[in-house]
């Protein structure tokens, strides 16, 4: 799964365990400043990604306190306990990420 993210230009944080992988989306440089003022970047990015790429993830900032929220605004998390067909579909979206 990490390789799929790397190929799409995303920077995964390799987990030591669990069911989620955190991904740094700052490398993409997508300007979302025109979306919902006052919302954290990760929230806007996930909303944009669902609409534009048909791929869902979870924003990180809801899991952060006020003192760390800014540090995680460019991170989202993906759950990888999914059916093989779901993971295969996600892989195709990620492989075509740069083409769209």
From TrEMBL:
Matches recorded under InterPro entries: Kynurenine-oxoglutarate_AT, PyrdxlP-dep_Trfase, PyrdxlP-dep_Trfase_small
Recorded superkingdom: Eukaryota
Gene Ontology molecular function: cysteine-S-conjugate beta-lyase activity; kynurenine-oxoglutarate transaminase activity
Required cofactor names: pyridoxal 5'-phosphate
Cellular component aspect of the GO annotation: mitochondrion
Coiled coil regions, renumbered to chain: none
EC number per UniProt: 4.4.1.13
Keywords, sorted A to Z: Aminotransferase, Lyase, Pyridoxal phosphate, Transferase
Subunit details: Homodimer.
Family per similarity comment: Belongs to the class-I pyridoxal-phosphate-dependent aminotransferase family.
Protein name: cysteine-S-conjugate beta-lyase
